Amino acid sequence: MIQYIFYLILPFLFIFTSCTDGGTEISKFGYQEGQSLDTTDTKGLETATFAGGCFWCTEAYFERLAGVKSVVSGYSGGTSPNPTYAEVSAGNTDYAEAVQVHYDPKEVSFEELVEVFFATHDPTTLNRQGPDVGSQYRSVAFYRNPEEKKIIEDYIAELERSGTYKSDIVTYVEPFKKFWEAEEYHQDYYRRNPDDPYVVSVAKPKVEKFEANYHTKLKPQFIN
User: Residue ranges of the Peptide methionine sulphoxide reductase MsrA domain (predicted)?
Assistant: First the structure.
């Protein structure tokens, strides 16, 4: 079983930057409303959806995990059609920043994805992850069937029994309904924007910590 927690808050390091502050070039890549950016061949793959704060970080974690074939950043857990980053990041919708994970169940299990999800964010902070504040950064584990719901709830119960956290877990466990892909410039943001202030001060230290602690679970190209 994957070990639990490496997440450490770095309050003084990134106090002056947040996910909302970055990614200002909205039209840079010519994204069209309604255009599908997810071209993954999902034959033989399963899909999981998680929201754990800024999707630039969440995407980078799962992209490194062996068995994961594609990760798409977007919005889930809301009701209005065609949400945009400007609306979601400003807190003007009921959506959360989320990622859609396409994975090969022969290589990595849903249980392992759930463990990685909880190990790479703080599930005890309501509507906040580090410098990112608002319901759009809430912690949500989405399920597509009763089996997935049970896996998530059982894992939360295990974390609470073990005393892993000093505070109560506030992660929402919700049925998956709809995922809207984020604008193209958000996809693979961590790799494509290494000099972004948020990436440098917030995302990079956490991703490097993930690589160090989960090196046996990484794709070969991410093993140092």
Answer: 47-198
